[in-house]
Amino acid sequence: MSPRPPTLREKRRYILAYIEPAGINIDQKDLYYVLTDAVTSLWGDALSGVIMAAVVASQDRYVIIRCRRGTERELVIALSTITTYRNTPLALRIVATSGTIETLKERIRGIKIHDPDPSPLPECTFEKRQFLINQCNGQKVDVIEKGFKNTNRLFLTREDLEEL
After folding, report:
1. Most buried of the four, 38, 40, 68, 145, by CB within 10 Å?
2. Is pLDDT of 119 > 60?
3. Is the pTM of this model over 0.85?
4. Total structural domains in the chain?
5. Helix (H) or strand (E) holding 130
């Protein structure tokens, strides 16, 4: 069987999304289920079948999601409703939309995380408790409570911290 010519192929669009917070290991299959649940609960089964959303790739803190051309808006709205992944707070921030995966992969390589204060911040104090700093991007600071029993994760700003 020969492949379809380009004029008969279905047109698709690819959406690049940034995963917040840092440090969450994303399994593509589980993220697909979360995505499908979000699209179906928001738009229903009929439109979900038209959108045909699928997780194509995940790299570092980015994920590429495929949909049919013309349904990008509905998919982006559904992505904004995703708030948890495996009982962990999660947000998908849309970076770009493209007709090819390669363009989005080039865009990932071109994005550099800007950190105005590159000094290392291993520990900090918040509400008189010690925390280990997981990631620090600009004003956002992700911390984990120090100790082997407490693994509470907080999302703070530099202004919230008592000591740096």
Report:
1. 38
2. no
3. no
4. 2
5. strand 129-137
